[in-house]
Structures are given as C-alpha cells and as structure tokens.
Amino acid sequence: MLLGFDPMLLLTPDLGLVFWTTAVFLVFWFLVGKFAFKPIAKAIKDREQTITDALAAAEKAKSDVQQLQADNATLLKAAKEESALILKEAKDLKNSIVAEAHNSAKEEAAKIVANAKLEIEAQKKAALAEVKNEVSKLSLEIAQKVIGRELDSTKDQQNYINSLVDKLN
Amino acid sequence: MLLLSISFTSIANTAHSSAHTTDSTKSETKDVSAEVVEHIMNHVSDANQNHIATIHEDGKEPKHISIPLPCILWNKNTGKLDVFMSSKFHHGHEAYNGYILDAHTGRVLDAATGTRDTFYDFSITKNVFNILIGFFILTILIFVVKSAYTKRQGQAPKGIQAFLEPIIVFIIDDVAKPNIGPKYEKYLPYLLCVFFFILINNLLGLVPFLGGINSSGNISFTMSLAFCSLLIINLSGNKHYWQHIFAMPGVPKWVLVILTPVELMGVLLKPAVLMLRLFGNITGGHITVLAIVGLVFIMGKLGTNVGGATAGSAIMFPILLFVNAMELFVAFLQAYVFTLLTAIFIGAAIEEHHHSEEHH
Fold it and tell me: Where does the pLDDT of residue A142 fall: very low under 50, low under 70, confident under 90, or very high at 90 and above?
C-alpha cells in the first residue's frame, strides 16, 4: 500500500470499460475502416499510380522531343550537305558549259574559216576556168578575125582549132 | 495544463481546511503528500463522473464542478438494469436507488455493502465519455477527409486532408507495406483504425479542460485493443505460423516439449506486451505531469506557505512545459509503436516460409 492507495487497482481491468472500449472500437473499425479508410487508401494508391504514370509520360515526351531535335539536326545537316553538293555540281556544270561553249565557238570559227578557204579556192578555180574559157574564146575570135579571110570556114579548120583549144585546157 | 492546476486547487483547499485541525507540521506534510498521491491515483483511474474542480470558500460547503455521466448498472441481485445520471448523487452527498458515490474515487458503490461486487458497472464512465468524444471527433474528421478524396480525385491534398495524409501515407508506406508484405491492403483499415483510435485518446488525455482523462492509459482500454490485435494476428496465421508454434521444423522432438509451451506463451505474450507498453507509457506520463504539478502543493504546504508555493511554481513551470511537450510526442510514438508491432506480428503470421527448406 502506497499512501493509502492500492496500485494493483491500476492493473485490474474493469468489465464495463472493456465492454465499452471494445464496442466503440469495433463500431469505429467497421464504420471508418470500411467506409473511410478503404476508399482513402484506394484514392491514395490511385493517385500515386496517376502521378507515376504522368511522370513516366513526361519523361517519355521529353525523350521524344530530344529524339525529334536530334532528328531535326541530322536532317538539317543532311540538307546542308545536299545543298552544298548541289551548288558544287551547279558550279561544275556552269564551268563545263562555259568551257564547252568556248570550245565549240572555237571549232565553229575554225570551220567557218576552213569553209571560207574552200569557197575561196573554188571561186578561184571557177574564176580561173572562166578566164581560160574567155581567153580561148577571145583567141579564137582574134584568130578568126586575123586569119578569117584566108582560112575557109571549113569543117576541118574548125575541128583543128577546137582540138588546139582543148589541148590548152 | 492551466486547468489541471485548477483541478489541483481542490486538493489544496480540502487540505487547507484540514490543516487547521492538525497542529503538528510534520503530520501535515505527510497529509499533503498522501492527498497528492490520492488525487493522482484517482485521476488516472476511472470514475462515474467527470470531476473538473472543487471550489472551497471559508465557512461554506465545498462546491463541486463535474460533468454528470450516465450510470448503467446491472444489479446481480434483482437482475435489473438501473440507469440514471450520476448527478443524482449530488457529488457523493446522497444515496440513490440503493447506490452511493464514493466522493474520493468517484465510483458507484452499493449503499448496503460499500463494495462494487453486487452489480456490473456498464456506466458511461469518464473514460468511456472520453473514448466517445474521441470516436465522434475522429469519425467526423476522417469522413470529411474521405469526402475530400472523392471530391478532389487525383489532386493534391488540401486542408485537413493535407494534415492527415502524411500520417496515413506513413502508416501505409512505413508500417503496413514493409512489415506485412504484398497482402498489406487487407490489414490496412485495422492498422489505421488502431493508430488513430489510440492517438486521439492519447491526445484527448492531454487536454486539461476535458479533465485530462487517462483513457488510453487504462489497462481495460489497452487490453481491449491488444485483444483485437491478438485475434487479427492469430486468425490470419497460416499453416507455417502454426507449424512453427506447435512443431518447429528442424528441431528434435524432445526439444519441442520445451519449445511448444514457450511458443504458445508467445502467442499471448505478444499482445500482452502491447497492452502493458501502452498502459505504462500513458499512465506514467499522466502520473509524471500530475506529480510535477503536485510539487507546488507539497512545497507550498497547500497554501499555508506562499513562498514555497511560489518557488514550487517557478521550478514546476519549465519542467511541466517540457514534460507536456514530451507527452505530446509520446502520444504519437505509442500509437505508432502499437500499430507497428501489430503489423510486424501480422507479417510474421502470414509470412510464406520460402526458406523452410533450410530447416531440413
């Protein structure tokens, strides 16, 4: 006994209090456990899932964007390379066209010159032939005029002169 | 805390009047200590009324302030249920229906025998009163939080929801999941209920103007909850659990003669430990707080020594502040420990022993 109080009383369960505690707790457990904590736990779990999903989606979107950016960079690089290539080709083409034009112009000129030479040659020949003809004609006329009276305009005489002229050619 | 002191003024005044009758200072000091201890013990025990304070004025009858509570008594002799309010006793001054109220302990006694043996007391005592208040506060609070979850589905918590959610998530993630394993969801409502039920009663016990009722420190309370845990643990026990109790695999037969009784005792000891730990911690806390307050009355010799009372108050105040803060922590800690150990025991009972091959 401690100063008029039995401490064992503290350790003695009381039927009424056990009854009420158990009753209230069971009601609480049934009511709150079933109709509040279960939905709350489910809501928390669902939200956790949603957040996890959203984070994963965000991560995926981020990597997608990065992928896209990388793709764009490659595309851009390729496009640049291609345009450079096209430019170079165009330049080459231009140079070759210019060169070709230069050459063909030269050839054309040479051809024209050659043709002109041939023409000149032909003209010269024609002119010479004409001159020869004229000369023979003239000589014949002169000869006719000179010797026309003595010489009969017989057939033999005519043939002889023609053969002479032919020999001249 | 302030009102705890007010309730202590009652002992101060009762002893003050008795101080006039005793001449010896030595016996007076002893009376004070006895008075303080009695007050403390009555405070931590149950009572049929919720006594808040007693006001003494010179030359007048002491005035009692208490919340009357319903008395529900099942009379063993008549087999009848007697229901009436404890206010009928007029604070122990009058008998009612063959019952009296012990003015000191606040408990109903049989008027004829002066004992509690002739009836079963199912009254709404001050502890039941406290438990009911806790029940209503918690139920409303948790249903408000629940509706917040349904209304604001998938959104960040707000208000009370944000206050309770970390606690709920803590119980789920740090108590249930790691200790019970994948089947934790089945036991989650019980763990949460036990945790909040203990917590609210611990916290209400710290509120002085309700009387600082020591309900969660009462052995009946802790026994009831420990018994629920005992049922949950053993009813969910699987084949391996019982096999380990009755026939521990890989142990020689003759050892089982010793081991099986020990294991069987363990079945009861686990919840018994839960019961005693909560009881000891909470009752101990209440006694500590009251003993520190009692220091003022002992040093002040119940108002006859003003200097002593002032010195006592000066010493008491910072210590009491510290102890009360610690009690607040203990309120959470013990609710957590009870829940954690229940979870661990459930986990051990439902664990699948994939390592059972090792025993052979």
Answer: confident
